[in-house]
What we know:
By secondary structure, the chain is mainly alpha-helical. The protein is 64% helix and 4% strand. The chain contains 7 helices and 2 strands; from the N terminus they run αααααββαα. It has helices spanning 4-16, 29-51, 56-60, 63-84, 93-101, 127-148, 155-182, and strands spanning 113-116, 119-122. A two-stranded antiparallel sheet has the order 1-2. A hairpin with a 2-residue loop joins strand 1 (113-116) and strand 2 (119-122). Helix 1 packs across helix 5, helix 2 runs antiparallel to helix 7 and helix 5 crosses helix 7. It is globular and about 45 Å long.
Amino acid sequence: METQANLGERVLALVAQPPDAGCTPSARPRDAAARAIEGAAAKAGLAAGTLALPPGPLGWATIAPEMLAVWQIQRQLVADIAALYGRSADLGPAQMLWCLFRHTAAQALRDLTVRVGERVVVRPAAQVLLQRVAEAIGVHLGKKAASRMLSRWVPLIGAAGVGAYAYWDTRQVGRAALQLFENEQVIENEPG
């Protein structure tokens, strides 16, 4: 089982360099993003459900790989949505963190954002702030991973639950990316 510090390090490594987008700007980005979200959610649900099948202690060893597999799918989704809106250049570590973990660790992300009326400003962050936020997310995820151990004792039902959660979670990540890139949210870029 991963320690919370290790999870924080993995989170930071996950967002350090956004992946290359698998698509180009779209004339109808909302429609293309909706298809991308559904496809990524299905892929994440299948990956998580499959990795959650081994029972008991053997299943515990699959918790970290399951989380990492889902995160890889989700980070690619965020990069693709940014590209669909022609905003790949705006996607940095702070924006990636916000999209990936806004719905599960909002309190940890409060230092990365400022609300200006209806808009959200996701500010670039110094490495030390990114580390602190990633550590806070790691603590949150460590608690979540510990609760997943229970699902490993009931393989089929547990796997279905884990897969359904990964599907829902990935849709939330996609919605966060839509909110950030579709609504012309302000993204302050790091000085060149």
